[in-house]
Amino acid sequence: MDAVKLLDIAEREKSTPGVPANEVLLLGEASSFLFCMAELLGAQSSVTSCALIHSSQSLKEQLRTRAPDILLLSYGANTISFLEFARRNKFPMGNILLLNIPPCPWNLSRMVSTGVTRMLADDCTYSEILHALKSIRHSQFYFSASVTQHLALAKMHGACKGEIFDSLSTREWQTAHAISQGMLIAEIAERFSLSPKTVQTYRYRIYRKLNVCSDVQLTLLTQRLLPDKKPTCRVY
C-alpha cells in the first residue's frame, strides 16, 4: 500500500470508529507504511497506545512486559519467524492481522497453516484495515478480496510445490536461480546486463515473495523444490 495514498484516505476517515483494541503493536521491517499506520491508528480515539517495533527482541520485550491487544504484522522476509515467536510466547493467533501479503496461493496457504485468520493484500485501503481490526472483536475470519480469490484457487488446484515460484517474474526467477548457483551480485548483473542496484532490487522482491531472509535459505528452497524448473516467459 502506498503511504501517501494511505494518508490521503485516512485524513477523510480520521474519525472512523470501530478499532476494537486499546493497545496496538505494529511489527515489520522499517518502512514509511508502518510509520504512517502508527500515526493514523494512534489518532483513533479508541486506541490508547500504538507502538512500532522491527525485531523479535523488541517483540519479546513487549510480550514479556505487557502484551498488546492486537498485533499488526506487515509482511516481509521475517514474517514466519515473527509468527512462530508470537505463538511460542502464547500470543493469541486470532489477534494478529497480517498486512501487505503478496497474493501467491502457496504463500497464502502457508500463512493460514500457521493459524493466521486475518490477511490483507497490499491493495487494501485504510478503511478495510479498520474493518479487519473490528472483526477481531467478533472472532471472525477476515481476508481481502484478492486474498480470498487466491486461497480459493489454491484449494481448487492444490498448492503444489512448484507454485511457490509462480509469483516470480522471469527476471526474478533467473536471479533466484543464479543466486542458488553461488553467483555474486556483480556476476549476475554482468550476465543479464543489469546494474548491481537492479539485481539487489530483484533479490529484495524475491525474498519478500518467497518469505526467505538469506541467500542460503533461497538456495535451499530452490534446489529442494525446483531442481529442474525452467523460467517461463513472463513480463518483468
State the strand order across the main sheet. 2-1-3-4-5-6
Mean pLDDT: 77
CATH architectural type of the largest domain:
3-Layer(aba) Sandwich
- Report the sheet-strand fraction: 5-15%
Sketch the topology as an H/E string, one letter per element: HEHEHEHEHEHEHHHHH
Structural class: alpha/beta
Distance between the termini: 20 Å
CATH superfamily of the largest domain: Response regulator
Radius of gyration: 19 Å
Number of continuous helical runs: 11
Largest sheet: 6 strands, parallel
DSSP, total strands = 6
Our count of domains comes out at: 2
What CATH calls the topology of the largest domain is: Rossmann fold
Query: Which ranges are low-confidence, i.e. pLDDT below 50, for 5 or more consecutive residues?
Result: 10-21, 227-236
Helical fraction equals 40-55%
What characteristic shape results from the CA principal axes?
Answer: globular
Q: Under the CATH scheme, which class of the largest domain? A: Alpha Beta
